[in-house]
Design brief:
With 207 residues, the protein is mainly beta. It has a single domain, classed as Porin (Beta Barrel). 7% of the residues lie in helices and 67% in strands. Strands 1-2-3-4-5-7-8-9 form an eight-stranded antiparallel barrel. β5 and β6 form a beta hairpin. It is elongated, with a radius of gyration of 23 Å. The two termini are 45 Å apart. 25% of the residues are buried.
């Protein structure tokens, strides 16, 4: 019996250094987004949309087990795109979403102070407001287009970043790509599609 107890203690002590690190935290995310629209048309040509810059921000909730984390988020993001008519005239579609990503994050050094990571997953989003902005002859006209587009969007997310762990908190810098799968036209013609795409640069402080 004594030998069995000693063997058990030895096993625990030996397993200690390789035991997975558990952890959880709430993160504040702030950053920059660069979005565009990808349009398909039954009768070409479709419009070629340019990027629209904006800010992004929200909260993340991370549950970590060793090198793997499950990370749901709630973000405010702007998607959309800009069409240039000429050097002085053009219009933008601005879609403001509450976006809810669910990501799996894999770190290379979960116990180190500096940890590179990859993340991937999917998202769902709810359209809060769609706005059209026309710039013509030096004047700007805005219109509410919310009723003309689908309220729900969904797609895939992939990214990479670096986490710096400090005492009591962690600081992460990451870049991610957002690939919308939903056709956001509310009443599209046959073969007509409009989908969101985006790049994001985010800084996260995790407590």
């Amino acid at each position: 019996m004594k030998k069995l107890v000693l063997a058990g203690l030895a096993a625990v002590l030996l397993a200690g250094p390789v035991r997975p690190a558990f952890g959880a935290g709430v993160g504040l995310k702030l950053g920059f987004s660069l979005s565009k629209l990808v349009q398909g048309a039954a009768v070409p040509p479709a419009l070629e949309w340019a990027n629209v810059p904006f800010f992004a921000g929200g909260l993340s909730f991370e549950s970590r087990w060793g090198p793997v984390s499950l990370q749901p988020e709630v973000l405010f993001v702007r998607m959309g795109g800009r069409y240039e008519i000429d050097a002085e005239n053009g219009f933008e579609n601005r879609f403001s979403y509450i976006q809810v990503p669910l990501l799996v994050k894999v770190g290379a050094l979960p116990r180190g102070s500096l940890d590179p990571f990859l993340c991937a997953g999917g998202y769902g989003a709810y359209l809060v407001k769609a706005q059209g902005v026309l710039e013509a002859d030096g004047e700007t006209t805005k219109a509410d287009l919310t009723d003309e587009y689908e309220r729900l969007d969904y797609g895939l997310i992939g990214g990479a970043g670096l986490t710096l762990r400090l005492r009591g908190l962690a600081l992460s810098i990451e870049g991610r790509y957002v690939h919308g799968l939903a056709n956001v036209f509310k009443d599209p013609g046959e073969g007509d599609t409009l989908k969101n795409r985006g790049l994001m640069a985010l800084i996260t402080v995790v407590y």
